[in-house]
Write a structure and sequence with these properties.
The structure is a single chain. Helix content is about 35%, strand content about 25%. A 9-stranded mixed sheet has the order 6-7-8-5-4-1-2-3-9, with helices on both faces. Helix 3 packs parallel to helix 4. It is built from 7 helices and 9 strands. The chain is α+β, with helices and mostly antiparallel strands and about 260 residues long.
């Protein structure tokens, strides 16, 4: 146990250095394409569609290593799926709180590289990540790291609140959640230093439980919320909901061959 702690502590120190280097590259402003999309444009200047991706990793029950990684891409604004790739992965890195990205990003990065090789026409303009962005103890979660590495806009969408920089799920927070009456109702998640780390947002009228939205990379918080609302048919935005449901269904199948769908 002492040796394992020492190894993990050395890994944590190295990851902290790398995380800080990544964080220095973080951008929280909209790209031109994101600005055009959120202004109401349905197609780009060249006539092509806007595409939004969703990524999720679902674990085999009773396993902390074996999982299914999923990337799906939907076209805006009808949210029709045009691409999906799923495959089994093994998490070889340890789980260290605050550094989840170092464990999960490699599997998601591989899925994206497969999309680039096999269906580059469906490259997403933004990727929704089942996890946190700036709403994170170190202000740099899974969505941030994936976005910086890919050089793409990303958004963190979490279903549960992570305790981060003074943001906690206390009684006051619970009362605020109860006052979110319809889609679009929200409140800021403010750190103990006054920084807005994200927003708690109800994304659908028929889904009272909100989600926690935060910037990943190359996008503003305002645009992150707009895209989440535009992509929601249920409690969670459709790209993440589909990635979550489909990866769980994949795990229930007997055969675990990689699955790829291209429209």
């Amino acid at each position: 146990m002492i040796m394992e702690f020492s190894v993990h502590e050395n890994i944590r120190k190295q990851w902290e250095i790398e995380q800080n280097a990544f964080k220095n590259q973080l951008l929280m402003k909209d790209t031109p394409d994101i600005s055009d999309l959120t202004s109401g444009l349905r197609r780009k200047a060249n006539g092509s569609r806007y595409y939004v991706g969703g990524v999720d990793i679902s674990f085999v029950k009773s396993s902390k290593e074996d999982a299914c990684a999923c990337l799906c891409v939907l076209q805006m604004p009808d949210l029709e799926m045009v691409y999906e790739k799923m495959e089994m992965v093994k998490m070889t890195q340890p789980y260290i709180p605050g550094f989840l990205a170092f464990r999960e990003v490699p599997a998601l990065l591989k899925l994206y590289r497969d999309l680039e090789a096999n269906a580059p026409e469906y490259k997403p303009d933004v990727i929704l990540v089942d996890g946190n962005g700036t709403l994170h103890p170190k202000g740099f979660g899974l969505a941030c790291q994936l976005g910086v590495i890919l050089g793409l806009p990303t958004i963190g969408i979490a279903k549960t609140l992570i305790s981060a920089q003074g943001v906690v799920d206390d009684q006051q927070h619970k009362i605020k959640k109860q006052n979110l009456y319809q889609a679009g109702d929200s409140f800021d998640l403010v750190s103990d230093t006054g920084e807005v780390l994200g927003q708690c947002v109800r994304v659908h009228d028929k889904a009272p439980n909100p989600v926690y939205i935060s910037v990943g990379h190359m996008i503003s918080l305002k645009s992150s919320v707009w895209i989440a609302l535009e992509c929601s048919k249920y409690r969670t935005p459709e790209p993440i909901r589909r990635a979550d449901l489909d990866s769980r269904e994949y795990l229930r199948c007997e055969k675990k061959e990689p699955y790829e769908m291209i429209a």
